Amino acid sequence: MLEDIKGVGPKTLGTLNKLGIKTIDDLINYYPFRYNKIELTPLKDGEVVVNGIVETPPIATYIKKNFNKLSFRVEVDNYLVDVVIFNRAFMKNNIKRGKTVTLIGEYDSRKNSISCSDIRLFETKETTFEPVYRLTSGITSKVLNNLITNALLTNPKVEDYIPNYIIDDKEFLDKETAIKLIHNPTSNNIMEKAIERLKYEELFKFMFKTNYLKQNRKQQDGLKRDKDFSEVKSFIDNLPFKLTEDQIKACDDILDDLKSESRMNRLLLGDVGSGKTIVSVVGIYYNYLCGYQSALLAPTEILADQHFLSITHFFKGLGVRVELLKGKMSKKERSKILEDLKSGDIDLLIGTHAILLDDVIFKNLGLVITDEQHRFGVNQRSVFQNKGTMCDVLYTSATPIPRTYALTIYGDMDISTIKTKPAGRLPIKTSLIKNKDIKIALFEILEEVKNGHQVYIVSASIESEDDDLKDVKTLKKNLDTAFNSRIPTEIIHGKLKPAEKEKIMNDFKDGKIKILISTTVIEVGVDVSNATLMVIFNAERFGLATLHQLRGRIGRNALESKCILISDKESERLKILTKSNDGFYISEMDFKLRGEGDLFGTRQSGDMIFKIASLRDDIKLLSIVNNESAKFIKENINNSFKDYPLYENLAYSLNHID
Ligand code: ADP
Ligand code: MG
User: Fold this and answer.
1) Homologous superfamily of 230-418 in CATH?
2) Does the Cβ of 278 fall within 6 Å of ligand 1?
3) How far, in Å, from the CA of 247 to the mean position of ligand 1?
4) Measured between alpha carbons, how far is 486 from 57 in angstroms, rounded to an integer?
5) CA-nearest residue, atom 15 of ligand 1
6) Which of these, 187, 391, 625, 651, could form a disulfide with 203 (CB 3.0-4.6 Å)?
7) Per-residue pLDDT tens for 347-385?
């Protein structure tokens, strides 16, 4: 337990939890993201790093409030030198005569004095690397490193996930040594060796899972459906719009998968607004015609609500019973739905994760669709497969991933892509302005509302102390002042109760609310086609892919839509959005500029996100590891991966939701 580690009290425990560190294993595997290199220099004018033996006890002078000076004398290579450092009076008692300290600062030979920027209370032997960790307030890299060192002293169990023959072959460090060294490297060379090994392992684990799932799926038989496609085709012909070519192709892929014996595991990729929902609906309809139930999983309640509305509309008069299962429902409502689900009366169940709870039992689940897959973790991919014996699985995602990456990280899936948007859509005109030009945005808002249209205002924060960060509440106040409270304006964010959110979304959909001020809860899927303007404050706080998703909420009909990005930071990155409406291009650029961070949504959503490897920099290594892990699986599938620890782990994650 973490509490058993020396130095971890209740307060530190809370701080560690904030960093996502819950176990000793998490702690020792919390790697530094860079190092400060400290190298001794000779004593000469300019920047120096030298060891000095303290000659005189330090004197603290308090110059004024919050400003003090510590001065003392040291011996450096047999020279006596004066030392000053500001605002370190608190170190006074730690700097003792006879002790050797490391002085980092500027030496001036005329004054024979070092003005220090930092003093370390130990002797620096040769080059040292001080690890720097990603932190939160209440802890420093030094303290964290001490805790990790203490944890390592308790000899925690360290599981090695690289098969032995690969370790031998590549002459990798053993895992425990690698972990010790990554936190306290003794040389550059050693540090790189530790990083290389841990990266390899991280990627190996990932690709092992992916390849294992792929292998596993190929061996399983799926549901076989016999019905021909005539009824589905007439359903498509009777839709209120004509499907685009890419939509038709995607429908064909899915229908063929459903008909065939092998189990479907398909990713439907398409930019925001490309029309992925209707493609899913076509699959659901065929599944229904064949006598099976379907489940549709949405990442948020808002989106589940929306799907419920639009899908019941598509299925009007066709006899498909669609129900919505929510997190918060009365016991009675919930048990009625569960009962009807079990008896097979419900054909399609829509909901969030709540659908995955154990008491939700289907009679004959045939198809599971996960909308906006990148919002869920990888491990969840396999969970629904336990809900129906052999059910087919479709994932949709609006995050266009460069093909190389898609092939590896989604290596266990087939992919259908929708590249073109439905005809008649105008590109969203995007502009970038500064806060001082806010009038431009206000004018546009007024103009759109006058024309009977609606407006989204997006903020990066629900509540903020920081004046530069415009939170939803401040924005509401400012807008009400600007428009004399004459335009119906509401706030929506993730912390509201589901019922409140639902009411606000419905009022917005019905046009009762004209301006909706929101956090990124509206990022995915929300579909109010009368909204034609979006104003995004503090745009610099968002990734390009997120901004592109956000503005995908407008431009949903033949009206011209505008997006105004507000940011005081000069940004090449944001300019990309003013020039392009192509999600694939934007995602490539974002990837180049920021790495995979934004590609898979928020950091939290991801066991997609590696701790030490990076999809951008380590793509070559990833494909090597991909091959190695596939080979390993092929050679060991018959002896059930004897002695390989990941296998137990894997069996576990196949059956559990993280
Ligand atoms: P996304 O791919 O972002 O999930 P949706 O499925 O929500 O996109 O589709 C966006 C909007 O476009 C919806 O209102 C939908 O009904 C409409 N739509 C989908 N396909 C077409 C089409 N072929 N022609 C016209 N409108 C379409
Ligand atoms: Mg969608």
Assistant:
1) P-loop containing nucleotide triphosphate hydrolases (3.40.50.300)
2) yes
3) 10
4) 70
5) 275
6) 625
7) 999 998 778 766 889 999 999 998 876 555 444 445 555
